[in-house]
Amino acid sequence: MKKSTTLISQIILVLSLVSGYFLIDFKVLQKKIQGEGQFVEQNKDCNLRKGPCEVIIEDGSKVILEVFPRNIPIMEKIKFKVRSSDSSIKDLSLKIYATNMNMGTVELPLEKQTDGSFEVSSTLPACKIGGMHWNAEVQKSSLFNITGARFQF
């Protein structure tokens, strides 16, 4: 009798672990643990359409964002180039979203070029109304939090 209860317990445990593995979205769970993140905003005088903008984030490192072409066209390929004074950073991501209308969120992993230098290309969606205001968040993630810089254009 004791062997059958132990066997049933083991089967239930294995089934629970296997179903948990397939049913739990670990990416969503990690985002809940990390929270919304803490972002330092760019200086309001800086304009990405004129040149690169820089922000010193909470850990003291400098993050610089530059956009090509400078006029930041809609529905055309745009290259985002990020440089960091922290050359030990292994990966960064870029989250782009409109602030004056829901145009969705574009989340892009930045591709490492050299130590402290990352790039990614993407296309921003268009709106007939025009006059869109965008935020681009350079995100540095760890297991328990997200920090980074927020740029406006």
Question: Your description of this structure?
Answer:
With 153 residues, the chain is an alpha+beta fold. Helices cover 20% and strands 39% of the residues. It is built from two helices and ten strands, in the order ααββββββββββ. The protein has helices spanning 2-23, 26-34; strands at 38-41, 53-56, 62-68, 77-84, 93-98, 105-109, 111-114, 117-123, 134-141, 146-152. The strands form two sheets. A five-stranded mixed beta sheet has the order 1-10-9-5-6, with no helix packed on it. A five-stranded antiparallel beta sheet has the order 2-3-4-8-7, with no helix packed on it. The longest helix is centred in the N-terminal third of the chain and has 22 residues, at 2-23.
Fill in the keyword field for this structure.
alpha+beta, five-stranded antiparallel beta sheet, five-stranded mixed beta sheet, 153 residues, 2 helices
Provide a compact summary of the structure.
With 153 residues, the protein is an alpha+beta fold. Helices cover 20% and strands 39% of the residues.
Helix-strand string: HHEEEEEEEEEE
**Average pLDDT taken over every residue:** 86
Show unreliable segments: none
Biggest sheet: strand arrangement: 1-10-9-5-6
- Give me the number of helical elements: 2
Strand content: 35-45%
Largest sheet: 5 strands, mixed
List the helices and strands and how they pair.
Blueprint: H1 2-23, H2 26-34, E1 38-41, E2 53-56, E3 62-68, E4 77-84, E5 93-98, E6 105-109, E7 111-114, E8 117-123, E9 134-141, E10 146-152
Parallel strand pairs: 1-10
Antiparallel strand pairs: 2-3, 3-4, 4-8, 5-6, 5-9, 7-8, 9-10
